[in-house]
Amino acid sequence: MSTASTRVLDHPEREEIRLEAVLHALSDPMRLQVVRFLAGLSGEEGASCSAIELAVSKSTTTHHFRVLREAGVISQVYRGTAKMNVLRRGDLDALFPGLLDGVLAADTAQRRRGG
Q1: What's the pLDDT band for 79 if we cut at 50, 70, 90?
Q2: Higher pLDDT, 107 or 45
Q3: Distance between CA 43 and CA 86 in Å, rounded?
Q4: What is the dihedral of CA 84, 76, 70, 99, to 10 degrees?
Q5: Which of 28, 14, 42 lies closest to 103, judged by CA?
Q6: Distance CA 54, CA 51 (A)
Q7: pLDDT band, residue 1 (cuts 50/70/90)
Q8: Which PROSITE patterns does the annotation name (predicted)?
Q9: Residues 6+ apart with CB under 8 A from 22
Q10: For 99, how many CA atoms within 13 A lie in the half-sphere containing its CB?
């Protein structure tokens, strides 16, 4: 018998994370918004899905989180009935040095330009 607190979600192992999947996940503005939010948190604190407001439907939000998790960009664990999300910065930085910082810096520059 499975309860919400014991449900485990599939995540790729570090060595299974592929650059093309990460780039695809980061190519969507909504998913980039999630990554930007999580990158702004300190340490491994994480945030629930509901704490990250996206201007899309609940089912679309669920899709975006799933794409990020399956690409290895975020880790999701259940805490009670809430899914907590943490950016897998350590894994991404080890596999693709500078990629995440570069993408976030480019995103900041683009938003400053109004794009």
Answers
A1: confident
A2: 107
A3: 9
A4: 80
A5: 28
A6: 9
A7: very low
A8: HTH_ARSR_2
A9: 71, 72, 73, 92, 96, 99
A10: 20
Asked if residue 34 lies in contact with residue 85, where contact means CB atoms within 8 angstroms, the answer is yes
Domain parsing of the chain, residue ranges: 11-108
The alpha carbons of the chain give a radius of gyration, in whole angstroms, of: 14
Asked if pLDDT for residue 99 goes beyond 70, the answer is: yes
Residue 80 corresponds to which tokens in the numbers above? Answer: 């009670």
State the residue for tokens 């599939």: 10
CATH fold label, 11-108? Arc Repressor Mutant, subunit A (1.10.10)
Q: How far is Cα 106 from Cα 50, in angstroms, rounded to an integer?
A: 26
| Alpha helix ranges (H) inside 3-98 | 19-26, 29-39, 58-71, 89-95
- 3-class secondary structure, 109: helix
